[in-house]
Write a structure and sequence with these properties.
The chain has about 325 residues and is α/β, with parallel strands linked by helices. The chain has 3 domains: about 10-160, P-loop containing nucleotide triphosphate hydrolases (Rossmann fold); about 170-205; about 215-315. Helix content is about 55%, strand content about 10%. Strands 2-3-4-1-5 form a 5-stranded parallel sheet, with helices on one face. Helix 5 (about 120-130) links the parallel strand 3 (about 110-115) and strand 4. The longest helix has 22 residues, at about 240-265. The chain is elongated. The model has no long low-confidence stretch (mean pLDDT about 90). It binds zinc ion. Zinc ion binds near residues 52, 57, 58 and 62. Zinc ion binds next to helix 3.
Length: about 325
């Protein structure tokens, strides 16, 4: 069974399995990745792998594995108070004191910090004391979507496990199993907007917000080549992050390419693509696709989002 329930991330799963087989258990793991990338799933699987006593752990069948996966194992402790904005120093001190009490029913005692980035500097300093001299049975699992917020002294003591985006086909396959009733175009849109992270794609589909309302605004501005609409669309994006802009450019390019394909008889991926195919000439669509690819190249070569938007305001007219 092993780590198979975590989708994708093959290399990471193989490395982890191999090091656990050799009996290498780190005292500190830093599991990093964006929202919805599977950090909690991996933490639970890793916890089960460390505590399970069956062959090829985690077997996910024994009572130890089951308790870890349900969150009821007494030696797998979550350190967080979701009511509070930060993970308080008090909470970390409590965990630190608790760690010196022997495990209840296993050879190890694990502490899960679901949002390590919210520990703040005092909290991290409190944690550092355990990081320097952990008891032999102690294992810390720090989860974060922003490893840069951790002190270098904390980060350097951790074995970092970095979760990656899923390949499109793998993600779409899972979404098809999870949301068989959803429209294929919604699943496509959710996969695209999630940036390859299953948790985010599931949320978009569950909330019915897979289709990007911004796509509508792009279509209106692009179809008419209206300078004012283009400004309204692009000026607010001038200050956006590079990754956000890159994701939007990808979505717009998919739209324009789907509209082009639609003009040659392929079914459109979304209602917006269909509308675009009807309102634009093939020449206009080719031009749009070329501009968006050029803009994506600019983003990739570190041109500022402001300058890239400025280019598009002019080029898409
Ligand atoms: Zn087991």
């Amino acid at each position: 069974m092993g780590f198979d329930t975590l989708l994708g991330n093959q290399q990471l799963k193989e490395n982890l399995t191999r090091s656990l087989e050799r009996g290498h258990i780190s005292h500190f793991y830093l599991i990093s990745g964006p929202e919805g990338s599977g950090k909690r799933t991996l933490a639970r699987l890793l916890g089960a792998a460390i505590l399970c006593r069956e062959k090829n752990p985690p077997c996910l069948k024994c009572h130890v594995c089951r308790k870890v996966m349900e969150g009821s194992h007494p030696d797998f402790i979550t350190v967080d108070d979701p009511e509070k904005k930060t993970v308080t120093v008090d909470l970390i001190r409590q965990a630190r004191a608790d760690m010196y009490i022997q495990p209840n029913e296993s050879d190890h005692k694990l502490y899960l910090f679901p949002r390590a980035q919210d520990m703040g500097i005092p909290g991290q300093n409190a944690l550092l004391k355990v990081l320097e001299e952990p008891p032999a049975y102690g294992v810390f699992l720090l989860l974060t979507d922003n490893p840069d917020k951790l002190l270098p002294t904390v980060r350097s003591r951790c074995t970092e496990l970095k979760l990656q985006a899923l390949p499109r086909d793998l993600l779409l396959g899972q979404l098809e199993r999870d949301f068989p009733q959803a429209q294929p175009e919604d699943r496509e849109a959710a996969a695209l907007r999630s940036g390859g992270f299953l948790g985010q794609a599931r949320t978009l589909l569950a909330e019915g917000t897979a289709q990007d309302p911004g796509a509508e605004a792009f279509c209106r501005a692009f179809a008419g080549g209206d300078p004012l609409l283009l400004l309204q669309l692009l000026v607010p994006l001038e200050k956006s992050k590079r990754e956000t802009l890159s994701l939007l450019l990808d979505q717009w390019l998919t739209l324009v390419e789907s509209a082009l394909a639609c003009r040659s008889g392929v079914p459109a991926l979304s209602p917006q693509a269909r509308a675009l195919a009807q309102s634009c000439t093939a020449q206009r669509l080719y031009h749009g696709a070329a501009c968006l690819k050029q803009a994506q190249l600019y983003v990739d070569s570190n041109v500022s989002p402001g300058a890239v938007c400025g280019y598009l305001e002019w080029a898409l007219r």
